[in-house]
């Protein structure tokens, strides 16, 4: 009764809005496209209704509609879209006429083609036309497989819904104030969530009510319907009303009748705008595969990163353990470009901070498949798949993080000889995936990783385990025997690399000369492009060799220098340990060594303190960064809430604590020596102390 009253009072307050709604309803009803029609198939606008009839007899009055403003959507939505979006993409043109008139949709289009707006617009419009107010409760639920993707969808929803008075909430893990949020969740109209959080609400929040649900959206639908989310999704669906509109979108759509039956779809429109396309991946994406033996994968990755220091790179590895290992190891080796890592076992606030950082910065992000679907990182130059993807769909989504919406991108897939079967699978996929095998010798291994990392972090084991147990792909060939021997202990440059470096210490030039075509040519910085200057590395290549001691050098001939760089006589420092006849006095020598030892101890102490101070500062800086991000989030939530209270009880953003929404197994146990935040610092401290003690022993 209260709800009805609220609706009526709002209707009375907004006469012009009501008129608009009436107009939209009539417009939508009068121009309903025939089921199964695709406006893209008949691009000329119909001068009369009958002229819009396609060859198959289907009629779509939206043929020729290319702009958002030509659609029967509210002015508030048009105003929200206008600053950023004017022309529709293919999937938007094909699906919006059907979804706006309430039909269930199974939408498929290539990665980066604008599927998000294709479901957010109908969600907002449906509730607007139903004159939904916060007191009406949950009217729409958008479910995504990962927290980051949910966050991104929420941002897009804020753009479209900017001028609307609907309330929306982001329900993802990582926040502690669950109780406060449970109180607010019932007044949210649109929930953008991960399945775990939503289920947590359904089970724990008193009076949580979805009985009035109008629209359910599953983004990355095939993923949401696969066995990883089956239990959670079935539990959610069982609590939702059957009378609702359901929108399913993905770049790799499911057609399984069994899956669709679980969702009780009613005569869904199957809209696959790129079904006729020759390729399954974006047209501007260049793809190559390289055969790399397992024990050379990291060297290859290192060389690749070192040769593309101006590029933004997303590196996929198959497990959290592996991501942590590669990130820690490469970070210590300082490649000359900022490194980041992202995986499901990180704290939510850290994950979000890294996601935002990578959106803004040219850097390298090592990630598990948590970043493989849906995330719209701007301007990624390279997607590097160090480990083979699980299947073709996983490959398509991973490479889809680059070449988004009309932009260009490149991807490289490392395959061990036994993984070559994956290449065949990709090449014979329908539609095609244009991927070619390249000779890996285009890159010389300029570095081999020191075994320090392998032995201390169990690196080799990490790689082997990750590849053996986490790649679910079935191989035709047997994997070769795993190399057992330890890696060499010294950091060194291989002989061939040294030879190349003799005449040219720019690794990127080497690659340029050897590449078969321009796909591996490193990106020049804009400055270099302007000046047409040769590329130089932003960091120096260190030629590290073994320190050789010449045992045949006569005693007392070693040159020494004072602090100003002046040469001093050999053994001059020991002059005070000789008597007048030039003979060494043992007591004085002993005394001098004692003094030196004391001095060294003092330096040790100072160094230790300095190091501790630096680590403390670094930690504080990191904490401040996370805190700032959290404060900004809270401020935004507050201002949304205040704004909401002013206009109408309104927009808000909430977060819930829970795990395992990433498609990665939930494991709380920490791996010794490998906590992304704290352990890396502890590890650094330990390493520094080890170095100090080895210097002084
Ligand atoms: N009509 C449009 N005009 C201009 N840019 C658009 C339009 N629609 C979407 N975009 C932009 O294209 C990019 C990709 O869109 P979106 O993330 O919706 O792709 P997607 O199809 O969902 O990709 P994925 O399959 O990877 O999830 C975004 O940056 C978005 O802002």
TrEMBL record:
Residue span, Helicase C-terminal domain: 293-449
Q: Where is this region: Disordered?
A: 28-55, 621-670
Name any one GO molecular function: ATP binding
InterPro entries given in the database record: DEAD/DEAH_box_helicase_dom, Helicase_ATP-bd, Helicase_C-like, P-loop_NTPase, RNA-helicase_DEAD-box_CS
Keyword list (alphabetical) reads: ATP-binding, Helicase, Hydrolase, Nucleotide-binding, RNA-binding
Give the reaction(s) catalysed.
ATP + H2O = ADP + phosphate + H(+)
Which CDD domains does its entry note?
Answer: DEADc_DDX10 (cd17941), SF2_C_DEAD (cd18787)
Enumerate the spans annotated as Helicase ATP-binding domain. Answer: 96-271
- The source's domain of life comes to Eukaryota
Q: Where is the composition biased (Basic and acidic residues)?
A: 627-658
Matching Gene3D superfamilies: P-loop containing nucleotide triphosphate hydrolases
Q: What are its E.C. numbers? A: 3.6.4.13
Residues crossing the lipid bilayer are none
State the SUPFAM superfamilies in the record. P-loop containing nucleoside triphosphate hydrolases
Pfam families (UniProt xref): DEAD, Helicase_C
What's the family? Belongs to the DEAD box helicase family.
Q: What is known of its domains?
A: The Q motif is unique to and characteristic of the DEAD box family of RNA helicases and controls ATP binding and hydrolysis.
Protein's job: RNA helicase.
Protein's name in the database: ATP-dependent RNA helicase
